# Entry
Amino acid sequence: MTQNVIRPILERLGMLDGNEWLIKKLDLRRRQADHFQYMSRHFSFDIRDATFIDLGPGTGESLQIAKHLGATAIGIDAASGEGGMGDPYLAVCREIIRARQLDVRCVGALSIDRELKKNSVDFINSRGSIEQILCQWMRGKPHHTHQNCNLMHWKTNCHLGIGSFLEKCAAVLKPGGSILIHANGAANTNVYDLALLGQAARYNFRIKKHEDRLHRLTLE
# Structure
């Protein structure tokens, strides 16, 4: 699948106007290389026969890589673009996901504990999706109107949303399973960091910060 499929999809869906940014963002060749590097760095262990969940899978590159490595790869995506990347983004991604024959369920990440069996998951990947998953816990214009997380702020009570999210993830993870969360950032990411750290222990996660905005949480 080549990069030049994006514009025709947008034109056919009547969504090209005002969405030229999508053509640049959904550069499939660049995304494949970027996701391969990310997966190699953070999931370099053998994930054969593991169950790998990608929250906000976009056009599915991480799922493709996990599937190629022998994992059962499942994406959990938003039901609509409101508060997230927007409906044009989701519409294009869903077309590409179908063409790639990947298992992506558009039910919303906060439905993960209803969509998946208890203690059935080895790894959950949330790369650049936590702000969209927890958009109701952020202040500022919705992300889909500007595509810039730095224009948004975490609410001071965001620990409630983060706690609920971790509780749902803990329900489906196997003991020893992990979540890798790479946040996009916000004007007050320090509030998010403190909330994540505070809520991790509450749901029996051991947390390790790998780098700025990148945390691995392992279920004990």
In short: Strands lie at 51-55, 72-77, 103-106, 121-127, 138-139, 153-154, 173-182, 205-211, 214-219. Residues 4 and 56 are 23 Å apart (CA to CA). The mean pLDDT is 93.
